[in-house]
Amino acid sequence: MAMLLLLGLSSCKSVKRVTDIESVSTRNLIELHEKATPEFKTLAAKVQLAYETEEKSQRITVSLRMEKDKAIWIKASILGITLAKVMITPEKVGYYETIGKTYFEGDFAFLGEWLGTPIDFQQAQDLLLGQSIFHLEPSKYTSEIYQQKFKIQPKRQPQNFIHSLFINPGNYKVAVETLAQPLQDRILNIRYGDYQMVNSQYFPVDISIITSEEQAQTKIDMIYKKIDLNVDISFPFDIPEGYERIQL
């Protein structure tokens, strides 16, 4: 069963129509997106998560805790029974699941294996915050209005690495982000639905993550039921004795 998780949040701006801001430069647009990153010390959230592959599908409840830029902690459960825990820091990833009694401790290859593309702590955090998972250098990107969204993409797409990003004009948060690697027949698509206001900042309500490689597809849908900011939290994570280590 294993590997089913990740999380979310975002920040605030006054609502404007696309027609009001067509003159926004790529540099200003990227600055507005970066300023939309939420400011908080800690976050605690309840998330409904659905995980689906060709072989199986599962719906679970996820408790998410985050100390910004320092730690992401996830507990997955069904009917109050813990199924798995994940601990992510800028240095490493830890994970264990109770049914198969397996665990992993090591680098970010674990998340990269799951998502189908290399990803580090900052990228995982940004994904959960409704921010682009890639650093946007204004001189290297171009933008245009497309279907009532801002479309941002590199002026030059690297070989076998096609990145595109759609930004909401109302809050400058990500609407859709896509990474394609055609030679591997691999696609990562991250789609955000509505955003909610928490402490005057925008946070995602729902996120859909779809990865496909050589016609095998994984889909993860997340719905945030409750988000609390700047609360006292802890990160209990001890791998039980007798669990078998996963080797990637």
CATH class: Mainly Beta
Report how far apart the termini are: 16 Å
The biggest sheet, with number of strands, parallel, antiparallel or mixed sense and barrel status, is: 14 strands, mixed
Calculate the mean pLDDT score and round it. 87
Structural classification: mainly beta
CATH fold assignment: outer membrane lipoprotein receptor (LolB), chain A
| Topology, number of strands | 16
Spell out the CATH superfamily. Answer: Lipoprotein localisation LolA/LolB/LppX
How much of the residues is beta strand, in percent? over 45%
Q: How many structural domains?
A: 1
- Tell me the number of helical segments per DSSP (H or I, 4 or more residues long): 3
Point out poorly predicted stretches.
1-19
Helical proportion?
A: 10-25%
Could you give the order of strands across the largest sheet?
7-8-9-10-11-14-15-1-2-3-4-5-6-16
* Shape assignment: globular
CATH architecture term = Clam
> What letter string, H or E per element, gives the SSE order?
HEEEEEEHHEEEEEEEEEE
Rg, Å, rounded: 18 Å
